[in-house]
Amino acid sequence: EFPAFLQFIVYYNNLWTIFSALDKDGDRRISKDEFHKVAPKFAKAIGSGDDDADAMFAAIDIDGKGMILFAELCHYLADQKWHDTAMDDLHDILQDDNDDANVNDDTAKAANKTKNVKKAAPKPQAVAKIALPEKSKAMEQFDKLDENASGKLSLAELDKAIVTMYPNLDNKAAIMRAYKSSDTTGDGFVGKSEFMDFLQYIVYYNNLWAFFDAIDTDSDRRIHLEEMQQNARLFTVDSIEELFAAIDKNGGGKILFAELCEYLAKHPGVVNEEEVSAVTEANTAVDTLEI
């Protein structure tokens, strides 16, 4: 049962992050006013067809006391059969509101060039190229990580392995994407047959993060249209504006890492590989996953 416990620790900690993003005044309760400010985005993020903010609030507020508690939010999301495969997307959507709330209106209207956002967490150095280990060595490493011989690794175990063994790959966005992509059975774990895929995805998403990071010149973990326009040479399309709109799936006016990943998986041809290699390799070194 311990692997399940670790999985629930990760899940509920992620849920608490979402709850905190909604709880603007930090009183551990979500008021109706706080909920109304993000209700449309919240409904869209969890795939709810309910566009009535009051009705949704009432559905979550089980005891009818006019505020949403953490336990009530957890119960509601479970009842909606929503799970954490879209956790990072939901967090980014809600975090946008927190960032926007910190923008000085007068400065934004006067210049519209300098964004006053919350200080982003330090980002790891982007890796331009990473080589995979041999499959036999990867399987040996899996056995070492799988201490209880369950044949499965949880997200927490994978995260710990990356942090301790490959600290230069400690990129939470890439780890989460790799974990989701390699968990083909949807059981919340990466099995031995999926572990090599996980390593391949770690390589892929870290390389893709280097591309994302090269465009995200203000390091706010979001790509804005101006940044795309300034890096037009990295793409093969004629209209950067049309490409930006296509990638910006939720129409938020900014491209999140998850959105870029999803789009490039379906349209790899929009990237100018030669220009991207020159940019991402300029300040990074070739690395290898040594086991």
TrEMBL record:
SMART domains: EFh. It holds the Pfam family EF-hand_7. Keywords: Calcium. Residues 10-45, 48-83, 133-168, 170-205, 235-270 form the EF-hand domain. It comes from the Eukaryota. GO terms for molecular function: calcium ion binding. InterPro entries: CML21-like, EF-hand-dom_pair, EF_Hand_1_Ca_BS, EF_hand_dom. This is EF-hand domain-containing protein. It comes from Craspedostauros australis.
